[in-house]
Design a protein that fits this description.
- By secondary structure, the protein is mainly beta.
- It folds into eight domains: 89 residues, no CATH class; 67 residues, no CATH class; 79 residues; 77 residues, Elongation Factor Tu (Ef-tu), domain 3 (Beta Barrel); 131 residues, no CATH class; 100 residues, no CATH class; 86 residues, GMP Synthetase, Chain A, domain 3; 110 residues, no CATH class.
- 13% of the residues lie in helices and 36% in strands.
- A hairpin with a 2-residue loop joins strand 19 and strand 20.
- Helix 1 crosses helix 2.
- It is elongated, with a radius of gyration of 46 Å.
Length: 839
């Protein structure tokens, strides 16, 4: 067979390839064309048309020749097309063309993330790489396997670490609102509470309905808190008194006993004058006793109380109590004058009758002694009838006097975070997770940069740390000392599971021995080289090393390279004895340990990886605080056409700004990229590269940055970020063809704008737009009018969500501009379709 023709693509005057020239048609004629040409030629040359009757010998010969020509032409077309990268038809040919250019089809990436290990009490040790864990199946998403990617030292003492300065004293002095730990106390508006802080008691009236939230009760009182802000740590609140009493005699008639009389002392045994009044008490009278209006069955000695008078509430503390039989009497001396008896000496006579009480009241009561502000209360100073004595408080709860320290953690930096304990054996370089107290809120994984010690005021030695981010932190409030907790047992994980198998043997002489792995897909992890296979190959139990090619290998170098064919099968290829050693002879002595699992199926939400595949001596449970992400599917053979020449464009080095973009596109999983020279840090300029994976995120941005840094001038600032998605808002009036269902037409319009079909993606679908690509009003009209069933359309609003949110009048923009780091997106819910009669 002759040499295939040189492929020369015809071009139009615009420089674009002419239609139909993407595939080389070396022999356009097919069987019928060849047969017809033979018949025509025979007619012209021989003067007679051949017979078309069945069994005609001449016709049969012509048909055989046409069949042979057709077959040869088909194979020649295939051969000719496969000879060129731009026209190759088979996946095998595409992969081989890429390999000739030094390009291997992107192997994809396994999703990676971090897991927090919760250890059993009191244990420590090392968790070896390969700890198997898994996710649960959710809907149509199947359960996936994950493993730790490195050995990690662990200790139960590092499970949760807290800053020493986590709590700050709340500024409560002068405040009328404070919080109490706990709920369900039954405190109501108008109730009285006592705040006890050390030996100081203060009484307060609740002036607003209490609010219960987050396990606490918020109280508002009439009397502001006194003292200083440092007085309230350790304070408690007393509430819900069991007794609301008056003093003995409060219910006597005022006409019989005046307030001053009820405040009096003991009834005198030998009054010098009459009338007299006072108390008779058994078993003993005590001048310091305060007689309550009734007897209390449950002791209140040592507990606080509240005295409520017209001047307001005041707190007291009961220092003693006892039961007394109390009688209050008011006695007068009755004098009766008798007229003179004629039979007796002259002059009037006076007879003094026995002393007797005029009025009295008796009752068995509880007598208490109490102090207020360190001063003993006496009966003579009390309002007997109007004062209220609240005693026997049933509720005792801590007052919230300290709260989360609002001081932010200025990391990374030189200011260390002081821990509340000594965390022995922590070392710089260790991964730890930062989280918020009290649940699965925001998390961040950081790397320790220094571990030191400090001594508190009591001389206790504690640990202090500094750290740096592992990945760009997510947007959110800075970490505050009061809410921060540090989880010390963190390990890297990736999607996949380990397999070990015997690849085969060697005769010791075959060059470029190729042995395929039996299981696929092979796991690849992101690295500065782009993608690193999780593979170990041993020959006779001796570990061999992987190389990209054999160019620099000597005959003694124990090395191999990895090649992936068009079916996704990965083969281990050894050297030829000149460049790279040939494995020694032996049977079944070449073995491989590798991991299988790759692609977006391994992406998992936070806390989705929570299942240990097998019990572990140290680990009790696992959980991923951050999403496992970055999974990328292997490149399809068709992608070789666009990516194989990337190496030629840059020669694996980034010099210009455009080089950075082209190199970023060579990183596995990156489908869109842009680069610009701009300000990076303050007024310092550098190169910003924007990258996006198939999901529109930058899950591997840190890996892409490491990949670029290994291939560029690192004195120039570099920033690698994800795309900034700019949402659009669309409002339109749509008239549909009456022959179509209205909802079908509206669905077709939405699909035309933001549909995710691979065959016909919407105008604003992620796969259909580039970074920095503007949106034109004309293309929106054109795409909508192409939808089936659309008779008429008028746009009433076309703008960004940001501009719409400013409250400006609706605007129909001719062009919506996007910066190089932005991508315009349109969600179905942001499309408003109105009927024709809408105003």
């Amino acid at each position: 067979m002759s040499r295939p023709p040189r492929f020369r693509t015809a071009y139009s005057t615009t420089g674009e390839p002419l239609a139909g020239q993407s595939v080389l048609d070396y022999l356009p004629d097919e069987f019928a064309d060849l047969l017809d040409e033979q018949r025509t030629l025979a007619s012209h040359e021989l003067g007679f048309p051949p017979s078309t009757a069945q069994g005609d010998f001449a016709g049969t010969l012509m048909e055989l020749a046409a069949l042979l020509g057709h077959t040869l032409g088909a194979y020649q077309d295939r051969y000719a097309n496969d000879a060129f990268l731009g026209t190759a038809l088979t996946a095998k040919a595409l992969v081989r063309h890429g390999r000739r250019l030094g390009y291997e089809p992107g192997p994809g990436l396994a999703a990676t993330g971090y897991v927090v290990l919760t250890l059993k009490d009191g244990v420590s040790g090392t968790v070896l790489r390969g700890l198997a864990m898994g996710s649960a199946s959710v809907g149509e998403k199947k359960a996936q396997d994950y493993e730790t990617t490195e050995d990690v030292a662990v200790s139960a003492a590092w499970s949760e670490l807290f800053p020493y300065d986590a709590l700050a004293v709340l500024p409560l002095a002068g405040k009328s609102t404070f919080e109490v730990e706990g709920t369900g106390f039954g405190i109501e508006l108008g109730d009285f509470v006592v705040i006890e802080r050390g030996s100081t008691l203060t009484a307060h009236e609740v002036s607003a309905p209490p609010v219960e939230d987050g396990g606490r009760t918020r109280l508002t009182v009439k009397q502001p808190l006194t003292g200083s802000n440092g007085d309230y740590p350790g304070a408690v609140v007393w509430a819900k008194p069991a007794h609301d009493l008056h003093l003995f005699g409060w219910d006597t008639p005022a006409s019989s006993f005046t307030e001053a009389e009820l405040q009096g002392g003991e009834l005198p045994a030998s009054p010098g004058a009459y009338p007299v009044h006072g108390y008779t008490v058994t078993p003993a009278y005590d001048a310091n006793d305060l007689y309550l209006s009734e007897e209390i069955k449950k002791s209140v000695a040592g507990s606080p109380g509240v005295l409520v008078t017209s001047a307001g509430p005041s707190a007291l503390k009961v220092t003693a109590e006892t039961s007394r039989n109390v009688t209050f009497s008011k006695i007068r001396h009755v004098v009766v004058q008798i007229p003179a008896d004629p039979t007796k000496p002259t002059g009037p006579q006076v007879t003094v009758l026995d002393e007797k009480p005029t009025v009295s009241v008796a009752r068995t009561v509880t007598a208490i002694q109490a102090k207020a502000g360190g001063t003993s209360l006496v009966r003579s100073g009390q309002a007997i009838r109007t004062s209220r004595w609240l005693l026997g408080f049933a509720v005792k709860a801590p007052l919230v006097a300290t709260g989360p320290n609002p001081v932010t953690v200025t990391q990374p930096g030189s200011t260390p975070v002081r821990l509340d304990r000594q965390a022995a054996d922590l070392e710089p370089g260790r991964l730890v997770a930062l989280g918020e107290r009290g649940g699965a809120g925001r998390f961040e994984v950081v790397r320790l940069t220094s571990v030191g010690s400090w001594a508190d005021g009591a001389g206790a030695v504690r640990t202090q740390l500094t750290w740096e981010p592992v990945e760009p932190p997510e947007a959110g409030a800075p970490w505050a000392l009061g809410t921060l907790r540090i989880l010390g047992n963190v390990a890297r994980i990736s999607h996949g599971k380990t397999a070990t198998e015997v690849l085969g043997g060697s005769d010791g002489s075959t060059p470029f021995l190729r042995l395929p792995l039996k299981q696929k897909p092979l796991t690849y992890l992101p690295s500065p080289d782009g993608a690193e296979p999780e593979l170990e190959v041993r020959v006779a139990d001796v570990l061999w090393s992987r190389v990209v090619d054999f160019v620099a290998a000597s005959p003694e170098d124990r090395c191999y390279l990895v090649q992936r064919d068009e079916t996704g099968t990965v083969s281990v290829v050894f050297g030829d004895g000149i460049q790279g050693a040939i494995p020694s002879s032996g049977r079944n002595h070449i073995a491989a340990t590798y991991r299988t699992g790759i692609g977006p199926d391994g992406d998992a939400d936070a806390f989705a990886v929570s299942r240990l595949k097998k019990a572990h001596a140290l680990v009790e449970r696992v959980a991923n605080p951050l999403a496992v992400k970055g999974g990328a599917a292997p490149a399809e053979p068709e992608e070789v056409r666009t990516q194989a020449t990337g190496y030629i464009r840059t020669f694996d080095r980034a010099v210009s700004v455009e080089d950075h973009k082209q190199l970023a596109l060579l990183f596995p999983g990156i489908v869109k990229a842009s680069a610009e020279w701009t300000k990076i840090e303050g007024d310092l300029e550098g190169i910003r590269v924007v990258v996006a994976d198939a999901k529109g995120t930058a899950a591997t941005a840190s890996s892409v940055k490491a990949f670029l840094q290994a291939r560029r001038d690192t004195t120039v600032l570099l920033d690698v970020v994800g795309p900034e998605l700019v949402g659009l808002k669309l409002k339109l009036v749509l008239e549909s063809d009456p022959a179509y269902l209205r909802e079908t037409v509206e669905r077709a319009v939405r699909d035309a704008l933001c549909g995710t079909s691979e065959a016909e993606p919407g105008l604003f679908a992620f796969v259909a737009r580039d970074l920095g690509q503007p949106a034109f009003l004309s293309e929106v009209y054109e795409r909508i009018e192409r939808a089936p069933g659309v008779r008429f359309v008028e746009l009433r609003l076309f703008d960004t969500l940001e501009e719409v949110g400013k409250g400006q009048p609706p605007r129909v923009a001719d062009t919506v501009i996007a910066s190089p780091k932005q991508m315009l997106v349109l969600a179905p819910q942001d499309i408003e379709i109105l009927p024709p009669e809408a105003p």
